[in-house]
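Review form for a predicted model. The reviewer records the input and the model, then writes brief findings.
Reviewer: anonymous (R2)
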Amino acid sequence: MKLMIFKKNKYIKKLVALSILASCSSTSKIFIDSPDEYFSKDYPRDLQDIYSYNAFFFSDLEVIQQKIDNQKLSQSELRDLKLLKKNYQKILEKNKYQIKLNPYQENSEELIKLIYQFNLPISISWDSNISSVIPAELLLNKIEGFCSSVYDDSITSINQEISENHGSTLVIYSDKYASLAKKIISTKSKIFTINYDSSNFQDFASNILGINFSKDRFNKITNLNPNQTMNFSPRSRSDIKQIVMLLNPIEFKAMIPALRYHGGSKFKYINFISSLEDLNNSLQLLDYEDSHTPISFFLSNKIQNQGTISIENFLEYGVLSDWLLDQVLKQAAVQSATIYGATGIIFYSMNSCNRREIPLQKISSDLFST
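Model under review:
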């Protein structure tokens, strides 16, 4: 299990000691108090950081107030900023937060790191008698406080996209995503679904796009008059406008080039969010250039501002952050919030489950230019 690298060595030692203590106790309480100086001096924050609700400093209130004092704000912008400030005041003024975890919780180490990142006085009560509060399959399963899982929210984004466009949609899925493929629906588009069951991506793409049929038809025509010379340019099927892929991460890197080889830019290619799961750094996104992928504004903005960044386990870490933030907001008595988080835009409401929207963004080289 990899550890986040912090800039201050004393911070690493404190985290390691905390992890050891957690692993050795069946029922214990740990109080985490992370001063502003651990983060704020090394990581200057702007409004974009503050809207992500993933760390909290009293200096954030000054940044928000400076924006409020700007005379060029619209009424909606002013309203949003005032709500943001009110929420941060509630979160920062609370002198203690508490969460309960099983010491054998699979992601307890990552949660400890997130608590340090949040920079809030959070007390952890470890109790081996309680069940794990966070599911093992973080992306597949719905976590506490949320209306649906990251996978289901990704499907919702895809369905919205294909419903806005006329023309049939071809859905290619591998066995792992068979149940999710059934959730692809459209009010305007006819859906064709096909299981990827081949080891040869080129042959598979040629077959499903009708290239092989086009070749067979040409051969039959030429056999009628073998003495006549005919030019042949295979054509892919014309009834399909969009291709949605629900594949294992490694399969995307071969499937997309194979489909483009036979179909060119004729189709709109849409990837499931699993396409992000096996990437080590953001530059590998260019393997999916000109295709559309559910990806948060938080991540795309981070790439645009910082260039090549590590995105290994980014989604899983984002889900854990979503869970921890939900605990904080409830205990701080925050009524509502719009969060531009790592997994998507989260609409928090104290009296209902949290909705998540994951924007479908086009992958292009522009993503890496400021």
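Findings: The first strand starts at residue 27 and ends at 32.
Further findings: Residues 1-41, 212-221 have pLDDT under 50 and may be disordered.
Recommendation: see findings above.
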